[in-house]
Amino acid sequence: xxxxxxxxxxxxxxxxxxxxxxxxxxxxxxxxxxxxxxxxxxxxxxxxxxxxxxxxxxxxxxxxxxxxxxxxxxxxxxxxxxxxxxxxxxxxxxxxxxxxxxxxxxxxxxxxxxxxxxxxxxxxxxxxxxxxxxxxxxxxxxxxxxxxxxxxxxxxxxxxxxxxxxxxxxxxxxxxxxxxxxxxxxxxxxxxxxxxxxxxxxxxxxxxxxxxxxxxxxxxxxxxxxxxxxxxxxxxxxxxxxxxxxxxxxxxxxxxxxxxxxxxxxxxxxxxxxxxxxxxxxxxxxxxxxxxxxxxxxxxxxxxxxxxxxxxxxxxxxxxxxxxxxxxxxxxxxxxxxxxxxxxxxxxxxxxxxxxxxxxxxxxxxxxxxxxxxxxxxxxxxxxxxxxxxxxxxxxxxxxxxxxxxxxxxxxxxxxxxxxxxxxxxxxxxxxxxxxxxxxxxxxxxxxxxx
Length: 451
Hints:
single chain; mainly alpha; Amino acid/polyamine transporter I
């Protein structure tokens, strides 16, 4: 269960209540959204574990896609990790790190004229430049550390997870103990909620993009499918109770936010530059000391989360380059440090550009849209492998097959279509970055020796 908590719980729980509240305008609906997103993530993890259990000896998801779908989709998965998913995660988590530092002391900004400069009215590279510069500095500092093979071990991962959980618990305790908190906050919707037109379908899917960022990491825990004792019994139990624990932590945290602040005030937090909901709540309840305390905890947690993502992602690009399907220089492994140093540098350059390209929420919505394309494809692989390899030994089988994987695949399709329709800017930016890999694929494939 500790593995599952450390794989999932990160920066999203501190921030995502603000855009979710703005979209749904009801505390009850926001809490329901956290539950629904958690259940969907659980279905995905229960399904993906069968694929990883069957193909565990072959490597990671890049190799899984190559075996299930062929070279093309495998390439686009790896390219998407570089262009959107993993680099976007690095950019967005480092962004929260910088915003937390800003909570300790305001970082510099440029003039209004410079901040208004845009590329096509979509990208504002000089907006909030102090926060962006610090986020980029963090990316390069951690890249330099990992260049020499300095990586976090299990102990550091546990410390970071405990720090994040301590931050959540501090908000919960402060909220429950404060005389300013009120049950009425949980029962009162936002101003204008009654006049909102339309049903809940579109708002719920829009809000779930935020929740899914907080649950991001469930796909990595599915890789334990072939590596533990009695996996048919223990994998579903570990995933079920681990995800249940994460859902519970997120519900308690968001309950505490709403108990401490009316939803209108939470929505107003998003109107302030570099705002973090947890910091705003602690400042209201415990003043400047509470603000500093939670900001420090978030700084420590996001520092560790950024480092976790940074080295693992670079290994994917190194493997692709070794297969002749990525920039050849990325295949280089440093002879002394045994790290993919050039892949790390390429990743740092692109992650830095993503930091400049948008805000935290824009980055996370874009990467979740891209991620669910491949989550659905990976889960559909359960059906492909059952048909293609019916007699293969499976250490773990998806419970509730075929309904559990089918429900998840359908959800992925609906989420992707709904995001394209209702949040076209983020969706099209993500899709554009994915499709930008097409000419590279055609070029590199031509250079491969005949099979």
